[in-house]
Write a structure and sequence with these properties.
By secondary structure, this protein is of the alpha/beta class. The chain has one domain. A three-stranded parallel β-sheet has the order 1-2-3. Helix 1 links the parallel strand 1 and strand 2. The chain is globular and about 35 Å long.
């Protein structure tokens, strides 16, 4: 994957978090955002806020590698170049 491209995922619930971690597993650098500060903190510590098979392992792998980053600030998510 190109270092110039990043994926932004807004909302890290039951759809957003597995999608974000799955994209990181495919090699994309991903920045996930969520307005729930407790959820962001848990994810940054490598803890999934809910159960999904294999999610916890992939979450720990990609938060540790830096390929998946999480923030409560939507403005930190990448903006497409065409905006």
């Amino acid at each position: 994957m190109s270092d110039k491209w990043q994926v932004g995922v807004l909302g890290l619930g039951h759809a957003g978090l597995p999608t974000a971690v799955g994209l990181a597993e495919l090699g994309w650098p991903v920045i996930g955002t969520d307005c729930d500060a407790a959820k962001v903190e848990a994810i940054n510590q490598g803890r999934s806020p809910f159960f999904e098979p294999e999610l916890a392992e992939l979450l720990r792998k990609h938060t540790a590698s830096g390929r998946f980053q999480v923030t409560p600030e939507v403005g930190e998510a990448p903006t497409p170049s065409w905006f």
